[in-house]
Amino acid sequence: MPLGHVSLAATPSTYKPMRDFYLSVLAPLGYTLFEEKEGCYLGLQTNYNPDFWLHCGGGGSGDGDGDDMLLVDPSLTADENRKRLGVRGNTGRAHVAFNVASRRMVDVWYRNAVKSGGIPNGEPGERPQYVKGYYAAFVLDPLGNNVEAVYFCPWWMQAMKAVPGVLTVLFGVVAGHVATGYAKSAGWM
């Protein structure tokens, strides 16, 4: 069964940077505002399906005394930020991947995400260590979540996309040959 929606947590002091980041980085993927209660939650949608949510689940008073979730430091690398935030491994606090329609869209998304404050966590490129045909890019969002744009099109999917064109040409050649034979037998040629 496919995933219905994803919701990431923010806190009172991190809600606005997270909101601004996701409004910016998801716009090129066709996301628009579905619903928002300022400071509480934000729902984004594509094709009338609100599948990405940001919610303010508390977790601190926001008064800066250390009980709030820390924002990433733009002057640090992804590895340095993960260490600072106490995150182990390469994934971040949470990992969210968005499917896109082309390699070019991964590239555009990545440039926009970095321009919008995302911390580079993997430039656009083929990821053969996952599977051949997996082209992706990664950034950390303001809270250190690992956000990915991925275009997955292995060789067999590329071949399937080519089948209709090949069949059309093949059918055209066969139909032309049959029509020419018929025209000759009928004396039209």
Structure description:
This protein has 189 residues and is of the alpha/beta class. The chain folds into 2 domains: 6-153, 2,3-Dihydroxybiphenyl 1,2-Dioxygenase, domain 1 (Roll), CATH 3.10.180; 157-189. Helices cover 34% and strands 28% of the residues. It has 4 helices and 8 strands, in the order βαβββαβαβββα. The strands form 2 sheets. Strands 1-4-3-2 form a 4-stranded mixed beta sheet, with helices on one face. Strands 5-8-7-6 form a 4-stranded mixed beta sheet, with helices on one face. Helix 1 (15-26) packs antiparallel against helix 3 (103-115). The longest helix has 31 residues, at 155-185. The radius of gyration is 24 Å and the shape is elongated. The N and C termini lie far apart (59 Å). The relative contact order is 0.14. Mean pLDDT is 83; it is low at 60-67.
Percent strand equals 25-35%
Q: What is the count of DSSP helices, taking H or I runs of 4+ residues?
A: 4
Taken from the alpha-carbon principal axes, the silhouette is elongated
The oligomerization state is single chain
The portion of residues assigned to helices is 25-40%
Helix-strand sequence: EHEEEHEHEEEH
Distance between the termini: 59 Å
What is the CATH superfamily label of the largest domain? Answer: 2,3-Dihydroxybiphenyl 1,2-Dioxygenase, domain 1
Radius of gyration, in angstroms, nearest whole number: 24 Å
Mean pLDDT: 83
Domain VOC: 2-152
Protein name: VOC domain-containing protein
Organism: Parathielavia hyrcaniae
